[in-house]
Amino acid sequence: MAIRVGHELHKRRKGRNIGVGLVLVAFVVIVFGLTVVKVTNGDPMQGFDHVTRPEMQPAEAAQ
Amino acid sequence: MTDATIMPHSQRGEGSFGDYVALLKPRVMSLVVFTAMVGLFAAPGALHPFEAFCAVLFIATGAGASGALNMWWDADIDVVMKRTAGRPIPSGRVAPDEALALGLGLSGLSVVMLGLAANWAAAGLLAFTIFFYAVVYSMWLKRSTPQNIVIGGAAGAFPPMIGWVAATGSVSLEAVLMFALIFMWTPPHFWALALFMKSDYEDAGVPMLTVTHGRKSTRRHIWVYTLLVAALAVGMGATSIGGPLYLLVAVVLNLLFIKGAWDILRRDEDSAQADGYATEKRFFFLSLVYLFLHFGAIWAETLLKPVGLGGW
């Protein structure tokens, strides 16, 4: 039977790693959510810079 | 600044996740979140709810980043002051370099993400706010002039303006008024704290007004700034972000605030020491409620507008 000596330091490191992991997951979710909102918001835009392009408006809307 | 004097070698860089969160000054962040939200929702522009959530989140992250940079720079004086000796760097739980890296990393991330979520005017204002707090206030003003918190108060006053700009894309009079309210509120708030923290700032060599001009002068300064902020706060009731509810809240709170400042002005050090600075402490806590309720009333006016009850 293996004996593992637990140390308070390991607990702290584990907590830190879990915390950083959760923050990274939350960040990915936020970027994904923002992308979905920006793309589905209805305004014609080019995905790379989220800037509205009037020339991309349909002909009747542009008049 | 050397970290060798601050922390024992064995503890370097082994802080818990909570220690890194503490570097971001969560209590200051909560005020930033609230005032930025009010600025954002009181503005006439319309952001998608998720964009608004992200905008507030990244404004708060930027505020946290500037807090980490402030703690990195001030570690040498934080270790001297009782109020700040338990912070992660002076207590040796986080290395100064880590705080610097976290502050710089989150600064860049928050500015870029706010630009993508809302607009680049808001992002630019956030970048300026971080620079103002970390460089202009922490590195320059704090240790060189008793006007440190008067001018430095601008850093804490920007969040509602950033929220407003995030929603509208530009600065307007209402955004400037919300900025001015926090800007004028900051000096009496911090000077009341300096009065009852007694020798903390003196021990650290920070030229607070209590140290350079004495306590009697500080009491006079609190009185004058309280009158100024009261006039501004009540006057805001007549603008488009005000309304009957806001005006009622502002009149009651400012009467209490002026009464508190008057009590502070009339006291001398002997009577203050005799009751453990009870009046100054009461004024300090009132000042927290004061700001929260003013912005709460602005928000309430915004919420009441769709049902025809908010505003004038």
Q: Can you walk through the features of this model?
A:
The complex is a heterodimer of chains A (63) and B (312). Chain A has helices at 8-40, 59-62; strands spanning 45-46, 51-52. By secondary structure, chain A is mostly helical. Chain A has a domain at 30-63. In chain A, strands 1-2 form a two-stranded antiparallel sheet. In chain A, strand 1 and strand 2 (51-52) form a beta hairpin. The longest helix of chain A is centred in the middle third of the chain and has 33 residues, at 8-40. Chain A is rod-shaped, with a radius of gyration of 23 Å. The mean pLDDT of chain A is 78. Chain B has 14 helices and no strands. Mean pLDDT of chain B is 91; it is low at 1-5. Chain A: Keywords: Membrane, Transmembrane, Transmembrane helix. Chain A: The chain crosses the membrane at residues 20-39. Chain A: This is Cytochrome C oxidase assembly protein.
Q: Secondary structure elements and their pairing?
A:
The complex is a heterodimer of chains A (about 60) and B (about 300).
Chain A: H1 8-40, E1 45-46, E2 51-52, H2 59-62
Chain B: H1 17-22, H2 26-42, H3 49-73, H4 75-78, H5 96-117, H6 120-141, H7 148-168, H8 173-196, H9 200-204, H10 209-212, H11 214-235, H12 244-266, H13 269-274, H14 278-304
Helix pairs in contact in B: 2-3, 2-7, 2-14, 3-5, 3-6, 3-7, 5-6, 6-7, 7-8, 8-11, 8-14, 11-12, 12-14
